[in-house]
């Protein structure tokens, strides 16, 4: 049973990471949907900086898990797909139509950032102390 799960692991990394990312988006950003109006009339939001930072820090754990096991493509694609789908779903009710520009920026930014972070994690893990096989 364990061998079968280990063989399935590479195929499951992308969908599992995408679902984890969707859940993290919902937990950190999904509940805050109103814009704040400043005293001068300017609007901000709907997200606060601490929410986005919390999402990024939360996503570091699954990306680290996947990248340290050499599932680089799974870490990058799973996280990028999850963030892109979540942004599209969350922002698609925007009447201006500019939400697609934001979704594209989320996609490109998460792809580049996750690729860089995954490469750094994989190279650091590879450069660790060698393991000695028991004879």
TrEMBL record:
Keyword presence, Transmembrane helix: yes
Keywords assigned: Membrane, Transmembrane, Transmembrane helix
Record-annotated membrane-spanning stretches: 12-29, 49-67, 72-91, 97-121
Protein name, entry field: Uncharacterized protein
Record organism: Streptomyces ficellus
């Amino acid at each position: 049973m364990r061998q079968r799960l280990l063989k399935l692991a590479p195929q499951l990394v992308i969908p599992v990471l995408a679902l984890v990312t969707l859940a993290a988006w919902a937990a950190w950003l999904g509940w805050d949907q109103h814009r704040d109006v400043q005293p001068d009339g300017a609007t901000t939001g709907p997200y606060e900086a601490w929410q986005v930072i919390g999402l990024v820090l939360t996503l570091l754990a699954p990306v680290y898990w996947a990248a340290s096991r050499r599932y680089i493509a799974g870490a990058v694609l799973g996280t990028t797909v999850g963030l892109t789908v979540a942004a599209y779903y969350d922002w698609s009710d925007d009447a201006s139509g500019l939400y697609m520009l934001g979704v594209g920026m989320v996609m490109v930014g998460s792809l580049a950032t996750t690729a860089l972070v995954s490469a750094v994690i994989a190279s650091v893990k590879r450069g660790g102390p060698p393991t000695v096989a028991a004879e």
